[in-house]
């Protein structure tokens, strides 16, 4: 008999309703029968379950044909029952676990399939083990579950262009999406660094575009743009059309639609390397060996349009999905501005500028695909020149794209980078593998609400779903992809599936504990960063000390810490109430359970100074980058060049900060640091000025000659060292570039400016 049985109902994503019953559990074993009417469509799901039982137990009972009105011994059975229930819809189900049988009811195959995924999570996690040893039986607690999804589109993206993954790895990826009740796999097949799909009409896409001679080493912002460091190892690979069909069929049996993405008109270097005449200038292109955005894009001439239509013809025949994604993001227009062919298109079609030229280009694809009975999805830049036709907008730069699409009557899929980019760091960067930047921890992913509050009730129906994206510039192997995706994909699944009113983060974390055991059984290389220590910082204005409270969401664990720079371990001091800090101190901490460190080590230097804990006002703050605490610019914590969680930003505005010291203070030093991250559209200020005031109205400029600049990596610190001054208010005014300058891939777009901490001594 099974041991360590699961006693509570822990299902992710959380169902609509769960009724748990006391009493003897159902025991799943080699004698368990799968009962289904073999003439009904749900036979496919029954066979899927039957095969899983065969792998678990070896010899199992054959599927029992449930003929109408026939009588059977239903003991120790899993019974599939087709119903017609409007509440359940296409993807809903009812799962009833009794001591001697399990009854699954659904309207369609998708509902039956998702009921089976719930059954897998209800069963002891060992049942899912890839190295399972037959235990004889596995318990399933008695319960009744009624469930159906919130959104029809529940997507997950994988970039196979930057790094190629095998067919078997892609299938495993799909299995994990299905386990979380996601129903769309966004297959990013082409980019500057590689073309990964066979197009029979254009063989050089296989022989040339699928190969790059080398890959940049480290983060691209750490490299000299003129002389990067490369590994000098060829990276190659593509999927044959036969392999594509195999992947698509495999996904379909798991209720997943595969949506291919063919990037255009930007991110085209790999294709241009194969067919140079498709560019604005017939020259020697090379498949990109580094990351970023390049201005070598598809020319908009008729020859290129014809080429891409031919490509899409083959793609459309391979993917039964109603959608094809045609990219449209990050397309610099500089080459078009000087290209005779592009300017000719603008004149002949009465277009206003290069933005309308991109819209014209994309409309050619949309109209062509419509003839193939396909609809277009494109990134939110497609809105810039106006859109026509039945186009769905994928909103990645924020929520504005989705809002604008919905207000114009177009469907939108919400995938904002600040919440749903899984190539971003999920914990303190110093404890994590190299990533592109950004910060999307599990809690932030979970709390994302896909329907913008700005939309009117009648506009909300156009938000058809939500998607998370995993770009693979810094993910060279599949284990690292899984590490970045899990358990964040679990949080995504609950955002996509669970009704808004049923969501609760603490409850999610409790249920996640069982899901992590499932991951262990399935050998998923997941991150434990959600166990990371967080710090609540309180400034005691009476004692002028910082009071620190350390937290971890890990159940049945304890937090240990050190203040002397040593590594925390099982012998370190256990945190109980609060830590008092009265001078600049390095705090190191971790969570321990059963004698084992289960969290990343938390390290933070608290820089106590006269600004610590004081209030400030920042004009035009960017709410997406507001720091990790309420007073992030005066919490004593400096930012890191590896992630953005402690930085406070503006977007498209100067940085105008006013600090209130709350009383007259004497000082002779002020400093503030800014981040240089041009690749992420983060620019240093062009000029920084410091002021002081007694009333916050009349300001005195500190002479510029008293200012010095220190640089450490991507962080530039602006210092003032002056004769002692007295004031209550201090102002830092940093003039910014406001918009990305000409020659930058984001030319014309708003630019970020990030600062981390103002220090006054």
Automatic annotation (TrEMBL):
It catalyses: Hydrolysis of terminal non-reducing N-acetyl-D-hexosamine residues in N-acetyl-beta-D-hexosaminides. It is an enzyme of class 3 (hydrolase). The active site is at 330 (proton donor). Residues 626-736 form the F5/8 type C domain. GO terms for molecular function: beta-N-acetylhexosaminidase activity. Pfam families: CHB_HEX_C_1, F5_F8_type_C, Glyco_hydro_20, Glyco_hydro_20b. SUPFAM superfamilies: (Trans)glycosidases, beta-N-acetylhexosaminidase-like domain, Galactose-binding domain-like. Residues 9-148 form the Beta-hexosaminidase bacterial type N-terminal domain. Residues 151-499 form the Glycoside hydrolase family 20 catalytic domain. GO terms for cellular component: membrane. Residues 545-599 form the GH29D-like beta-sandwich domain. This is beta-N-acetylhexosaminidase.
């Amino acid at each position: 008999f099974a041991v360590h049985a699961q006693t509570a109902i822990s299902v992710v994503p959380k169902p609509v309703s769960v009724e748990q019953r006391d009493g003897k559990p159902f025991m799943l074993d080699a004698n368990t029968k799968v009962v289904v009417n073999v003439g009904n469509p749900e036979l496919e799901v029954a066979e899927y379950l039957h095969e899983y039982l065969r792998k678990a137990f070896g010899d199992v009972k054959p599927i029992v044909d449930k003929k109408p009105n026939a009588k059977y011994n239903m003991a120790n059975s899993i019974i599939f029952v087709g119903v017609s229930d409007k509440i359940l819809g296409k993807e809903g189900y009812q799962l009833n676990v009794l001591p001697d049988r399990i009854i699954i009811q659904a309207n369609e195959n998708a509902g039956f399939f998702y009921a089976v995924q719930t059954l897998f999570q209800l069963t002891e996690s060992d049942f899912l083990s890839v190295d399972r040893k037959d235990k004889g039986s596995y318990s399933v607690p008695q319960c009744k579950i009624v469930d159906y999804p919130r959104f029809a589109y529940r997507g997950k993206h994988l970039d196979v262009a930057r790094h190629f993954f095998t067919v078997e790895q892609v299938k495993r990826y799909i299995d994990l999406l299905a386990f979380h009740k996601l129903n769309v796999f966004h297959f990013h097949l082409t980019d500057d660094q590689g073309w990964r799909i066979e197009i029979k009409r254009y063989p050089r896409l296989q022989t040339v575009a699928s190969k790059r001679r080398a890959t940049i080493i480290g983060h691209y912002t750490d490299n000299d743009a003129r002389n990067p460091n490369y590994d000098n190892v060829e990276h190659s690979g593509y999927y044959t059309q036969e392999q594509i069909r195999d992947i698509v069929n495999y996904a379909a049996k798991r209720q997943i639609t595969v949506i291919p993405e063919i990037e255009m008109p930007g991110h085209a270097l790999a294709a241009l390397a194969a067919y140079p005449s498709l560019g604005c200038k017939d020259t020697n292109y090379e498949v990109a060996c580094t990351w970023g955005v390049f201005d070598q894009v598809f020319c908009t001439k008729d020859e290129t349009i014809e080429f891409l239509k031919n490509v899409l013809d083959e793609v459309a025949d391979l993917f039964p999905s109603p959608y094809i994604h045609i990219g449209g993001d990050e397309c610099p227009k500089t080459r078009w501005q000087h290209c005779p062919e592009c300017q000719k298109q603008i004149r002949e079609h009465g277009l206003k500028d290069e933005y309308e030229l991109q819209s014209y280009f994309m409309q050619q694809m949309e109209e062509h695909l419509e003839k193939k009975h396909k609809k277009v999805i494109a990134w939110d830049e497609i809105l810039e020149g106006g859109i026509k036709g039945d186009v769905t907008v994928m909103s990645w730069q924020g929520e504005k794209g989705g809002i604008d699409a919905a207000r114009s009557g177009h469907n939108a899929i919400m995938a904002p980078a600040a919440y749903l980019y899984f190539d971003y760091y999920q914990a303190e960067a110093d404890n994590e593998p190299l990533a592109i930047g950004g910060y999307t921890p599990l809690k932030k992913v979970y709390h994302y609400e896909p329907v913008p509050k700005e939309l009117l009730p009648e506009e909300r129906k156009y938000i058809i779903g939500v998607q998370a994206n995993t770009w693979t510039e810094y993910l060279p192997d599949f284990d690292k992809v899984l590490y970045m995706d899990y358990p964040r994909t679990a949080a995504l699944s609950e955002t996509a599936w669970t009704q808004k009113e049923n969501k609760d983060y603490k409850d999610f974390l409790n249920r996640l504990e069982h899901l992590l055991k499932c991951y262990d059984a399935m050998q998923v290389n997941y991150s434990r960063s959600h166990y990371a220590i967080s710090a609540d910082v309180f400034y005691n204005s009476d004692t002028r000390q910082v009071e620190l409270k350390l937290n971890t969401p890990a159940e049945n664990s304890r937090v240990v810490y050190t203040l002397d720079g040593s590594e925390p371990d099982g012998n370190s001091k256990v945190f109980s109430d609060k830590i008092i800090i009265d001078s600049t101190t390095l705090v190191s901490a971790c969570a321990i359970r059963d004698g084992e460190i289960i969290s990343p080590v938390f390290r933070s230097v608290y820089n106590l100074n006269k600004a610590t804990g004081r209030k400030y006002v920042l004009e035009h703050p960017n709410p997406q980058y507001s720091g990790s605490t309420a007073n992030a610019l005066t919490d004593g914590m400096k930012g890191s060049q590896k992630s953005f969680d402690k930085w406070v930003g503006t977007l498209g505005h100067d940085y105008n900060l006013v600090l209130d010291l709350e009383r007259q203070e004497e000082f002779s030093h002020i400093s503030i640091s800014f981040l240089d991250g041009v690749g992420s559209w983060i620019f240093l200020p062009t000029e920084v000025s410091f002021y002081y005031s007694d009333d916050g109205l009349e300001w005195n400029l500190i002479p510029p000659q008293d200012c010095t600049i220190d640089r450490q990596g991507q962080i530039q610190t602006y210092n003032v060292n002056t004769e002692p001054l007295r004031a209550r208010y201090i102002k830092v005014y940093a003039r910014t570039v406001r918009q990305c300058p000409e020659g930058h891939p984001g030319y014309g777009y708003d630019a970020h400016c990030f600062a981390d901490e103002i220090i006054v001594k």
